[in-house]
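Hi all, long-time lurker, first post. I run a small reading group and we've been trying to get comfortable going from sequence to structure in the token notation. Rather than ask abstract questions, I figured I'd post a concrete chain and ask someone more experienced to write out its structure so we can walk through it together at our next meeting. Sequence below, copied exactly:
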Amino acid sequence: MTMRSGTLALLCATVLSGCAYVQSIRGDLSGQIDSWMQEHEYGKIIETVNHVSPSRSDYKELAAKRDEAVRRSQEYERSVVSHAQALTRANNWHEASRLYEAALEKIPESKPLNKAYTTFREQRSSYLAELNRRILLSKGNRLRIEVPAQEEILRVNPDDYDARHRHRQLQREAEETAEALTRCAETAIRAADYTLAKRCARLANELRPSEESEALLALATRRLNRVYAMRNPKPEPKPKQAKARKESPKPAKPTPPTASKASQSDLMQLYLRAYEANDLEAARRYMQRLRAKDKDSPKLKKLEAELNESIQVLVQEGISHGRELYSDGQIQPALDEWSRLLQLDPDNKELQDHIARAERVLEKIEKLSERHKAPPRTPASDGG
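-- Answer (accepted) --
Happy to help. Here is the structure in token form:
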């Protein structure tokens, strides 16, 4: 290689515009352009001819070829984009990427190609993220079943070394997966995909219950309910028609005895009415007053035992119902249920713990709501 050709090659390799200038002073430029035209190197043709001096004898011929290169480059761009989009629809992402990259090597400054390639990469990233979410949800569902099963194996045979080792592995995997699912829920809330957020948060909470996942689940549920309400608005209530005639007044019910100045027999009557109406809170208050006046009555002891048994049944049912609400992300209704039950059983430690946790989670929900403001929704949107 001569010093001159080596210098030219170095110039072409380092600066594109310098390379174009070097090519523009070639004597056989017309033939080189024809070769580039066959190879779809339209960018080289345009850039090179732009550096040709108008005083050159064959400038008009070269300018005409540049114009032809511009026209063909536009056709080539449309062809590449169309073909790449067809490959993308056929799920042939790799070939589509190679097609864009090869075309951009020939026309690096092409705005249509760069725009289409940017859109393609965004679509590919979105598709890959969706695939990773599927894997994560599938993994979470598998662990939700496998961890309890492995725990049962270990309970049945605690001396099984392999079972203990597998159990530790699953515990670590469940913890990592729950963390990933919590991040998934938070990301989905930011993207207003509340259906996905609810799925991720619920699964995370099943694997490793935490106040953060509970708060995310509740927030996603709240916003989903709002979206559903917007999509399915309740019909306006119809105005009641005026009655043709006034109804005859109903006879007044006999006034029950007041509790403030009630005798023992009156309190017993109030107690029995409350108990029959399943108003156990009121029945409990009347029983306390009855027992205060007569601590040793065998009849009252028996009635009190029956009342306490009924209260315990109601409390346990209410705790279970509250848990169902809580697991579904309905934290406030669960808290209302447990708070009502605490009036019946104020020393119940389980209720106190549930209430304290629910109150902490509600505080987290408010903080999350501030951090992830819900975008304006339209009735047609579905949240994911």
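A couple of things your group might point at:
The radius of gyration is 39 Å.
The domain at 264-371 is CATH 1.25.40 (Serine Threonine Protein Phosphatase 5, Tetratricopeptide repeat).
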